Amino acid sequence: MNKIQIVGVGDDGVEGLTNHARALIEAADVLVGPANLLPKVAIGPSERIESGSDLQRLGEMLNEMSSRNVVLLAGGDPLFYGTARFLCDSLGKDLFEVVPHVSSMQLAFARVKESWDDAYLTNLATQPLDRVVERIRTADRVGLFTTEEITPAALAAALLDRRIDYFNVYVCENLGSPDERVTQGDLSSLQGQTFGPLNVMVLVRRQGVADRPQQMEGKRLFGNPDDQFLQSKPKRGLLTPMEVRCIALALMDLGPTSIVWDVGAGSGSLAIEASQIVTGGQVYAIEMDAEDFGLMTDNAERYGCSTLIPVHGQAPEALAALPDPDVIFVGGTGRAVGELVDTIFDRLRPGGRFVVNVASPDNLVGVQAAFQRRNIEPSVRMANIARGNYQLDRLRFEAVNPSFLICGTKP
């Protein structure tokens, strides 16, 4: 049984093929490929068959021709969300050899000199526009294939309509061909412009800008999505993730009249949600970083938190004038978190709850030791969360940084 050769072809056709790829095509008995690629490859056999859009039928046809010397043409890298991946999955890898060309997505990122190893990649032909826009909101780099209906200008308008205006944008047309063109600008500059159908759009977040959160429809008492909070770049990721926040709030055992300290509050996500539970008490959110403190006050205003009191300062000095709390939550305090627990533990009221969120095993050990010095056996949980992330037509899981939650009750 002959192996079917799957050969990637760029927009430049035969000119961009390697000698090995050309030799495979010239030696073929039959050439199979999409209607837009077959005319670009003038070399090879006279017997040519259009592959069509029905991949199931294509697989059956190739299986029937397995005794012949067949070359299947595919655009760019056939394994980059392309035909080859489906065929290898459905018919088995042993039936094929793959000779890739550079994918148009790879070319686009090369043209704009940006890394694409952690970019959000998607195809507007297979993903709903609203889902794509919300994923772009918190991305650093984005690569996407547009469609005739959702053009670069239409996507730019959808992003601007949601106040997502913090990206530099590149539209790369006809990559690899003589009439290749790259247009650079911001999102507003794309409005009214038209581009060729063969384009890849690349978005690059400007340095240091904060996300524009979603609108407040469907606001929850707690467990609001991370992207509903303003948070700073490049420090993004320090915000307590939604899933960890829910566990922490449960462990804090809040009541309507609780007095709460959130030490190292960052941009305020946990303090804000605590204040929505503590409707008759007070939540003191202590943060030393001026930028994060400003974002916290903006977030609190958006959520209408009447019981949240932002405190700009560093613990433990900033805590001296505050009333003794029923609950203390500590997060984002760096290496000295164990010492901080020791320093402020005596301020906690009897029967009060102490909850600490740390990211490193070293800090976990330090907090455990601080609790045990008070004859408290801490309860410890490790939170390992992975969120589904669609990359073109495949579901992948993106891990959130693991963290530890340590809690105890003062006798």
Automatic annotation (TrEMBL):
Gene3D superfamilies named among the record's database cross-references: Cobalt-precorrin-4 Transmethylase, Domain 1 (3.40.1010.10), Methyltransferase, Cobalt-precorrin-4 Transmethylase, Domain 2 (3.30.950.10), Vaccinia Virus protein VP39 (3.40.50.150)
Pathway(s) annotated for this protein in UniProt: Cofactor biosynthesis; adenosylcobalamin biosynthesis
Source taxon at top rank: Bacteria
EC number: 2.1.1.132
Sample GO molecular function, one term: protein methyltransferase activity
Keywords, in A-Z order: Cobalamin biosynthesis, Methyltransferase, S-adenosyl-L-methionine, Transferase
CDD domains for this protein: AdoMet_MTases, Precorrin-6Y-MT
Leader peptide range in chain numbering: none
One of the Pfam families matching this protein, by short name: PCMT
Tetrapyrrole methylase domain location: 3-190
Phosphoprotein keyword on record: no
Protein name: Precorrin-6Y C(5,15)-methyltransferase [decarboxylating]
